[in-house]
Amino acid sequence: MGAEFVQFSLTPILIGIFSAIACALPGNFLILRRQALIGDAISHVVLPGIIVAFLITGVTAAIPMLLGAAGAAIVAVILIEAIKRLGNIEPGAAMGVVFTAMFALGVLILEQTDTSRVHLDVEHALMGNLESLIWFQAEGWHSLVDPVALAKLPDELIRIAVVCAFIAGLTLVFWRWLKIATFDEGFAQALGIPAAALGFGLVVTAAVAAVAAFDAVGSIIVIAMFVCPPAAARLMTNRLEHQIWWSVFLATLSAVLGYVLAGYGPLWFGGQNAVSAAGMIAAVSGVILGLACLYGPHRSREGVGRQDIA
Amino acid sequence: MTKLQQPAMAAEDGRATRPAAVPAEAPLAVRGLTVSYGEKPAVFSVDATFPARAMSAIIGPNGAGKSTLLKASLGVIPRLSGEVFIFGQPITKARNRIAYVPQRASVDWDFPTTVIDVVQMGLYRKVGLLGRLSGQMTIRALDCLGRVGMADFAHRQIGQLSGGQQQRVFLARALAQDADLYLLDEPFAGVDAATERAIIDVLKLLKSEGKAVVAVHHDLSTVRDYFDHVFLINVRPIAEGPVSSAFTTANLQAAYGGRLAATHLDELAMVEGR
């Protein structure tokens, strides 16, 4: 665990951890609101936006990508409304059509364009390129206090760290609103809490997390980050406060274990090559969710449906 | 009999007309209220005034817009037209004076939280977004739980409660709001007899303290025992007034149409003749 680790593994692991946490935090509330698949939908819709932004600017910088993603999200909302109104089609079907169509469009554009200058191709867009986000200038642990080396940290790490801190800050500041409005939206509105705007803000936050995590885990696997750690955390406790901490812990565990297993796991079993770190992170988070389903202390209540009223 | 005249057509163009005199002391008054979920209105052109220091029931058949009337009064669902006055003021200026008990089945009781946490949500208007819950406030929340006989359940996960216990917790949360007007959406739906007794005792105590209670109510057989004032609705307003004069067979038939079973009417007629 020396220079090589700092140079090749430290930054990918950190980016994986920050991505997982940034997605898990809003994921907790999305799951409790029965909106878990919103994260999936968003990650699909933003793909063409990110790619078009890249084609126009020629760089994978944060601001253009976020703007592209936001533009794609707006187009998606307009399309969904149009299909609902003009075709008189139910909302679920309208969303399903728009999300898959926009995602497919993103894949087609990506395939047809020359993106050889940077790491943006179909495989990376779908599954991330965590392994390539290395810290070239690092020569060992002492580089962590070396300003010259620190200045050359991968942009992706800075970006996801800022987004993760931002989302954590939002969660803290709006904690009371989120808790009351997620449990009882009508009561929250009667108290004067802007519940509708809060719900919209939550979806926007999830979209920001999805875009920021794009580098690390790509646009398909990000759904695992939204759903698995919070869902497993729910099975570990009956307190929302504790659930959030559990989700952060399980997200971190998934990222670290997933990265290590992807890099070294195949070698232990006599394989030759490492496997996709993002894929392994998602797989590990799924296994953790499975274990929580089987052995979690509070699994008995989960799955008891809400009593829907007319 | 105080059968209402249909209000003037002025409300139909969507513009709020200057309401007929709204008594400033009326805890809840709505004028020309229309609410619609789709093309068909759920509540159409409703005028209603609920009196102070009284328990009022909102009565009508399923789909008559009872809950909608309550939610639109609170601003929980948007209104198409009309105005709502809480003690003579618009809702945005009177939120601190209202407590609300939504339908028990409208929330997910698997939500990861405890009984005391739910009751403390009623303190939000005092604590604010970032304020700290003082020890005193926690004591008050526990006191509210005690008033509904749930003090021993403070640290239970809410999913472990029975339906009646859930309803008591919701009432305790409303008590924590320390309001002057209590709006309850079907507080007796699906609760056990002991809970119904406990809830009505708490509500009657509130009334004796000078508070106003307005409840959406289903059970016609208990209206005379529990309430002072009724408002009958079937999308349009049917009748309002003291139970003794407005809760009549004729008004019920007007509200329920053919949907009120003959046996039910007989029962009520017997109570009436008592």
Please give a structural write-up.
Chain A: It is found in: Cell membrane. Chain A: Keywords: Cell membrane, Membrane, Transmembrane, Transmembrane helix, Transport. Chain A: The chain crosses the membrane at residues 6-25, 37-56, 62-80, 92-110, 157-178, 190-214, 220-237, 244-262, 274-296. Chain A: One of its GO terms (biological process) is transmembrane transport. The complex is a heterodimer of chains A (310) and B (274). Chain A is an all-alpha fold and 310 residues long. Chain A has a single domain (3-295), classed as ABC transporter involved in vitamin B12 uptake, BtuC. Chain A is built from 13 helices and no strands. Chain A has helices at 3-32, 36-57, 62-87, 91-112, 122-127, 147-150, 155-173, 175-183, 185-190, 195-212, 214-234, 240-268, 277-295. Chain A starts with a helix and ends in a 15-residue tail after the last helix. Chain B has 274 residues and is of the alpha/beta class. Chain B has a single domain (23-273), classed as P-loop containing nucleotide triphosphate hydrolases (Rossmann fold, 3-Layer(aba) Sandwich), CATH 3.40.50.300. Chain B has helices spanning 66-74, 91-94, 115-121, 124-127, 135-147, 163-176, 193-208, 223-226, 243-246, 249-256, 262-273, and strands spanning 28-36, 41-50, 55-59, 81-86, 98-101, 181-185, 212-216, 229-234, 236-242. A six-stranded mixed sheet of chain B has the order 5-6-7-3-8-9, sandwiched between helices. In chain B, strand 1 (28-36) and strand 2 form a beta hairpin. The longest helix of chain B has 16 residues, at 193-208. Chain B is globular. Mean pLDDT of chain B is 87; it is low at 1-18.
